[in-house]
TrEMBL record:
It comes from Lotus japonicus. Transmembrane segments: none annotated. Belongs to the pectinacetylesterase family. Residues 1-22 form the signal peptide. Pfam families: PAE (PF03283). GO terms for biological process: cell wall organization. It is found in: Secreted, Cell wall. This is Pectin acetylesterase.
Length: 422
């Protein structure tokens, strides 16, 4: 089994790498201390996606050398970076740019902590990372994009590549927008300007960044190029939590204010809504002009744990077991989660009417399904109508078929790779 040590993770994380069927899920043991559930989950899920596999492709880190001159730096002032694996053959002029996720930081204290991790400094980033799922270089693992130029842009700002501010006293740089622009410019100089096909993708905070930057990405290419976007686990809802409050809105409000995100949000939204509302994808997706595919679990694990039922909204721990393991949810809790699914389906109604857009909303307790091999494309991948996620995305991108796949409600789908935390 390959072993990967995640630099900058400040918690003990024990991985159980046995693959089990969808009804039992994937078991994670972690000590929930200073690191967010999202970071802990991401480390575990990433490791599970390639544990037990032989010789996963490892791709080195490239720092963007001219970024500092543009003020495009990580939280601590270090250079941003990406991992690039070159395409070949029919994919030589096709580019897939994947935006890394990793949560958001909304106050000085947490940002000071973050700048000493891989999420805020390239000094702590892994020098090599495995490319799996949509980034894999093997046709049997990634049938449509395996021989493309594939890029993973590292996330070291904390505002979905959308902020542009600084806090000199705390020695913090919030330069996500500049990092995005510097990376695009660098990649264009390395051949991306010749692309005849391009796909912008991202998971979690990177999925939100994909929605925010989708039309901007389209603008880098000639009109003759086929350019589309894929947001994985990025459909964060402005939902009411279990206490009747709005935990995620409170977080986003801090992020938008601290990192001055407003000026980089689409004006079509900020002209009629407040900036925090325009950081929520539900208020952006219908105005994205570039073809967009939304891949999301109807019962997104991160949203349940950190937005719907975070400990701050559940001081008596009524939701503790349920939020970590869906099998331990009471009937009333499942009913609450069904309401969340219904809200998600309502949010995508207008979006789904466009023939250019695509959907894959499965009724799983999961988060980020395109970058993990087991959920992207494998013998027992999640399916809707016998179509795996990789096949659905490929059919949509290459116009082989329209894809508007919406699962029946929990617990009907037995193909899920549900995440269970303990």
């Amino acid at each position: 089994m390959a072993r990967f040590f995640w630099v900058g993770i400040a918690i003990a994380l024990v991985l159980v790498s046995n693959c089990v069927d969808g009804s039992e899920g994937y078991l994670h043991h972690f000590n929930e201390t200073e690191l967010s559930l999202l970071e802990a989950h991401e480390a575990a899920a990433s490791a599970l996606s390639f544990s037990g596999r032989n010789n996963p492709l490892l791709v080195g880190l490239t720092l963007i050398q001219n970024a500092a001159a543009k003020g495009a730096v990580c939280l601590d002032g270090t250079l941003p970076g990406y991992h690039l694996h070159r395409g070949y053959g029919s994919g030589a002029n096709s580019w897939l740019v994947n935006l890394e996720g990793g949560g958001w930081y909304n106050n000085i204290r947490t940002c000071v902590y973050r700048k000493k991790t891989r999420r805020g400094s390239s000094a702590f980033m892994e020098k090599e990372i495995p490319f799996t799922g949509i980034l894999s270089n093997k046709a049997e693992e990634n049938p449509d994009f395996f021989n493309w130029n594939r890029v993973k842009l590292r996330y070291c700002d904390g505002a979905s590549f959308a902020g542009d501010a600084a806090h000199p006293t705390a020695q913090l740089q919030f330069r996500g927008q500049r990092i995005w622009a510097a990376a695009m410019e660098d990649l264009m100089s390395k051949g991306m300007r010749f692309a005849n096909q391009a796909l912008l993708s991202g998971c979690s905070a990177g999925g939100l960044a994909t929605i925010i930057h989708c039309d901007e990405f389209r603008g880098y290419f000639p009109r003759t190029a086929k350019v589309k976007c894929l947001s994985d686990a990025g459909l964060f809802l402005d939902a009411i939590d279990v206490s009747g409050g709005r935990s995620l809105r409170n977080l986003y409000s801090g992020v938008v204010g601290l990192q001055r995100v407003q000026k980089n949000l689409p004006q079509i939204c900020t002209n009629h809504l407040d900036p925090t509302s325009c950081f929520f994808p539900q208020n952006l997706i219908s105005s994205v002009r570039t073809p967009l595919f939304i891949l999301n679990a109807a019962y997104d694990s991160w949203q349940i744990q950190s937005s719907l039922a975070p400990p701050t909204a559940d001081p008596h721990g009524y939701w503790h077991d349920c939020r970590l393991n869906h099998a331990k949810c009471s009937r009333s809790q499942v009913q609450f989660l069904q309401g969340f699914r219904n809200r998600m389906l309502n949010v995508i109604k207008d979006f789904s009417r466009s023939n250019r857009n695509g959907l894959f909303i499965n009724s799983c307790f999961a988060h980020c399904q395109s970058e993990r091999q087991d959920t992207w494309f494998s013998d027992n991948s999640p399916v809707i109508g016998n179509k795996a996620i990789a096949v659905a995305v490929g059919d949509w991108y290459f116009d082989r078929a329209g894809v508007k796949a919406i699962d029946c409600p929990y617990p009907c789908d037995k193909t899920c790779h549900n995440l269970i935390f303990a």
